[in-house]
Design a protein that fits this description.
This protein is α/β, with parallel strands linked by helices. Helix content is about 40%, strand content about 10%. It folds into 2 domains: about 90 residues, no CATH class; about 90 residues, Ribonuclease H-like superfamily/Ribonuclease H (Nucleotidyltransferase, domain 5), CATH 3.30.420.10. A 5-stranded mixed beta sheet has the order 1-4-3-2-5.
Length: about 220
């Protein structure tokens, strides 16, 4: 079936899925899950408003700058604007966006006791020294990462993808994680895709995947570009 022939189909399916998530997920997990897609996050905030979770809705609107997005529907702008001018509302931090040493989400939100999951610390890794987060290509950090990875004998790879709500949604890679014997590199692909030199990242990945001298151990890898 061609979804283009039914322009109201996908928004309807997405809306139904969002209502499910708003009902079942903690608001902080909602924001984290959909922060890469403001259109879906708008629907989450609308759902929080309907649940009278106004502080939470206000906080997401401000933190994610939803009202500054020119594509926000007019009817949602009318719902969001009054919250931003209401002095009684309190801005709430989202613990999932704070420096958390990459602790498991379930432990940050206190859904599980500390120590339930294996962490990087349990493996003897120092988060500040051994994990390198990269979101810009034109940096020495990117160059150093490429150099070490392409000179490694073996690497481990894993990916994280943007959320998709229907079978018609196209998944986009959000993060590429590559581990060498020395470091763990986390590439924010969504951020890097916005840069004009994104081809440099693509060439690096191609060189890595086509190099028969480097053993690649994959976790989940569908679309690496």
């Amino acid at each position: 079936m061609d979804p283009q022939a039914y322009p109201k189909l996908i928004p309807g399916l997405q809306g139904a899925a969002i209502r499910h998530f708003v009902r079942d997920l903690d608001w902080m997990r909602l924001e984290e899950k959909f922060c890469a897609d403001q259109n879906l996050l708008n629907l989450c905030v609308e759902g929080l408003i309907k649940k009278k979770m106004l502080n939470e809705a206000f906080s997401i609107i401000k933190r994610q700058k939803l009202l500054s997005n020119p594509s926000i529907p007019f009817y949602l702008k009318k719902k969001f604007k009054p919250l931003c001018s209401d002095p009684s509302l309190v801005f709430l931090k989202n613990s999932l966006f704070e420096l958390d040493d990459y602790a498991p989400t379930e432990e940050i939100l206190k859904l599980n006791e500390p120590g339930t999951f294996i962490t990087m610390g349990d493996l003897g890794l120092d988060i500040k020294k051994d994990l390198i987060y990269i979101e810009k290509i034109a940096t020495s950090k990117f160059e150093q990462a490429v150099n070490e990875i392409l000179n490694s004998r073996a690497v481990g790879l894993d990916t994280e993808f943007t959320s998709h709500l229907t079978k018609f949604d196209k998944q986009r890679i959000a993060l590429l994680q590559i581990a060498t014997n020395e470091k763990i590199y986390v590439f924010n692909v969504l951020k890097m895709k916005e840069k004009i030199d994104f081809a440099k990242y693509q060439n690096f990945v191609k060189d890595l995947l086509t190099n028969p001298e480097i053993l690649k151990v994959f976790s989940v890898l569908l679309y690496i570009f």
